[in-house]
Amino acid sequence: MMASLSESLWVLLLGSLLGLELIGKVPPTLHTPLMSGANAISGITVLASLTLIAQADASPALLVLGSLSLGFALFNVVGGFLVTDRMLAMFSRKPSRARGTD
Predict the structure, then answer these.
(1) Are the beta carbons of 36 and 88 closer than 8 angstroms?
(2) CA distance linking residue 22 with residue 17, whole number of Å
(3) Do the beta carbons of residue 74 and residue 46 sit within 8 Å?
(4) CA gap 25, 31 in Å, rounded
(5) Which residues contact residue 46 at a Cβ distance below 8 angstroms, ignoring those fewer than 6 apart?
(6) Contacts of 3 (CB under 8 A, 6+ apart)
(7) Hey, where are the domains in the chain?
(8) pTM beyond cutoff 0.85
(9) Contacts for 76-80 with beta carbons within 8 Å, 24 or more apart?
(10) H or E element in which residue 17 lies
(11) Dist. CA 6–CA 14, nearest whole Å
């Protein structure tokens, strides 16, 4: 059974408020790793976007919607991996120079 537009908007609103409340309770030290993992999960959105584009036979609106969602999802995934890489680089040891080799 297809959900009506008003039901879908209520689910979006309640999900957004719940997400805002949960993320607001995360301490700052855990925020970056949590968001990096959440951005990596956006790979599911990439697959959904590709499926939508593949099924958009004669509908230009679906093709545009799928392309936009693919672009945003890829931006999110790449950004998540860049943030994770930068975060992990902070924990790596820097090579020390040998003393007295001037």
Answers:
(1) no
(2) 9
(3) yes
(4) 10
(5) 70, 73, 74, 77
(6) 11
(7) 32-91
(8) no
(9) 76/39, 76/42, 76/45, 77/39, 77/40, 77/42, 77/43, 77/46, 79/39, 80/35, 80/36, 80/37, 80/38, 80/39, 80/40, 80/42
(10) helix 5-24
(11) 12
Question: What's the helix, strand, coil split of the chain in %, to 5?
Answer: 75, 0, 25
Q: What percent of the chain has pLDDT over 70?
A: 89
What's the gap between Cα 11 and its chain centre? Answer: 20
Q: Among all chains, which residue has been given the structure tokens 């990096």?
A: 36
pLDDT digits (tens, 9 = 90+) for 26-39: 887 777 777 767 77
End-to-end CA distance of the chain: 76
Helices 28-40 and 60-89 pack at an angle, to 10 degrees, of: 140
Residue 77 token pair: 């995934």
